Amino acid sequence: MNEFAIHVLVSVAMKEAKAISTRTKESLAAKKARGFMLSNPENFTDTPPGHCMGGVKAECAGGSGQ
Q1: CA distance 32 to 34
Q2: CA-CA distance, 22 to 11, in Å (whole number)?
Q3: Cβ–Cβ under 8 Å, residues 31 and 38
Q4: Which pLDDT value is given to residue 33?
Q5: Please, how many CA atoms are within 13 Å of residue 52, restricted to the half-sphere of its CB?
Q6: Are 61 and 40 in contact (CB under 8 A)?
Q7: How is residue 43 annotated by DSSP?
């Protein structure tokens, strides 16, 4: 494949990546405007990262597993 063809393919790929990003951001904004919670409240804990690796979920939620 010659250099020009590669340049064209890379340009098209970059344009598509930007379009996907724009569509995703617009979709998330619309969903948020309808009142949908975009985050997972379970992710906001005081448990250190890696604590729940292979553990029981009750222990990971701050139970008596420590």
Answers
A1: 5
A2: 17
A3: yes
A4: 93
A5: 15
A6: no
A7: G
The residue type of 18 is K
The two structure tokens encoding residue 34: 């309808």
Q: How does DSSP assign 39-64, residue by residue?
A: S-GGG--SSPTTTTTT--HHHHTTSS
Rounded CA-CA distance 66/56 in Å is 11
Average pLDDT per 10 consecutive residues for the chain, totaling 66 residues = 94 98 96 86 68 57 50
**3-state SS assignment for residue 53:** coil
Q: Look up residue 12 and give its two tokens.
A: 């098209």
Q: How many residues does the chain have?
A: 66
| pTM of the full structure | 0.55
Are 61 and 41 in contact by the 8 Å Cβ rule? The answer is no
